[in-house]
Amino acid sequence: MQNGFRTDQSQKLQLRVDPRMVLGGQLMEMNSVELRSAIEAELIENPALEWLDESGEPLYLETILKSVAPAELKPSSEDREFQRSRPNDAEETDWLDFAGCTNTLEAHLEAQLCAVLDAKYLPIIQVVVAYVDDRGYLSAAVEEIALDHNFDLDEVEYVVSTLRDCEPEGIGSADLRECLLAQLKKATQMEDKLAYSIVKHCFDDLVDKNVRGMARKFKVMPEVIHAALEIIRTCSPYPADGYSREGRTTKTQDRIGVPVDLKIVRSEFGWDVEVTGVDPRDLIISNAYRAQMLKMQNTVAATDDEQRHLNTYIQRAKNYIDALEQRGKTLHKLGLFLIDHQIGFVTTGEYRFLKPLTRRQVAAAIGLHESTVSRATAGKHVQLANGEVVSFDVFFKPALRIQQMILEICATETPGQPLSDERIAQLLADRGVTVARRTVNKYRDRERLLSSRRRKAS
User: Fold this and answer.
1) I need a surface site. Which of 163, 184, 195, 344 has the fewest CB within 10 A?
2) What tens digit of pLDDT does each residue of 162-204 get?
3) Cis before residue 237, ω within 30 degrees of 0?
4) CB neighbourhood size of 10 (10 A)
5) Would you call 327 helix, strand, or coil by DSSP?
């Protein structure tokens, strides 16, 4: 029996994914903060990738004028602000100059939290404090904060719990009832303890001012209930009152600690789109690696390992820079699309101008795949021309639009005459959005808005 060799040929179909596409998709999904962290990690791992050397002194307008037209920099005699602000060594500092300084709520809360919590909680502290609205309430559930910002739930709960022990009392509460309980929890006198029990166990009777019902429930005279109610009235329903609103806006979206990935700006020259974060032009291939590669190609014979090392890391750096450039171009296209198709909303921030939109429509309009648009918009935020910061999701999720319109309607209602859910549904219908009353009720509860009866009582 003879032994022999046999050669066969066969064909098979195999799908191979280009690593550059994988890298591009990964960078596309990141927001500006995540992207910065990823780039810093890549700079550590890839010696061929470097920041552009900016060690040289930047050339400002003042520097140019100093050498070309120094007279332009001299203040005139009419420049009163300059004369007032000039230092005078002969005079001591007048501390009354600082009397106008105000303490913002954010600074007040962060100072207290940083004094008692470990430094590792600082990112969570900044985000949680940003969720405290102008009334002093926490505008989102703990679970939502942890999920939206990829924080550990237990750590967020710990920070929020510590926040609720801070001054002013009641800060960081979820609602009015919790706020009052926080201010009454240190009760020592009988009337104080009764006030705490009323808020905790008979809040509906308190809202309805059902004195007789509370008197029967606690088996006391109505006069005692009235005394307890007077103590409740001394509590502040809005713990944030008395603190500066400077730098704070009226919309929650502007205050949450989220990174802005795209800015739509309107100036005297027209519309402009700015992609925030790291500019791909700030990254370059290392000059040392370029020189070594050139030397290897021209004269010096390199070993296989050295050649493999240079080729691998230089190509990796090029792919990374190309992926960053593609990410920036995609976001820029999205910004231009919003200017063309959502001009009313982009200009005013009013949700009644927001037109229904899908990612498929956007992808077809700007010549990209739907999955690319989905990656480019996931978890990212846009700063509109009026300064408001919104999530990309508001352009693609009708429910978010309706929720925001309900918030806008409730924010403009007449104090003392709150609108019912039925009336809100009618106003939405007038704006072209048809929803049922129960839908309004669901979205209002989701935004932690009280019913019209409770809003009137509070």
Assistant:
1) 344
2) 998 888 888 888 888 888 888 888 777 787 888 888 888 888 8
3) no
4) 4
5) helix
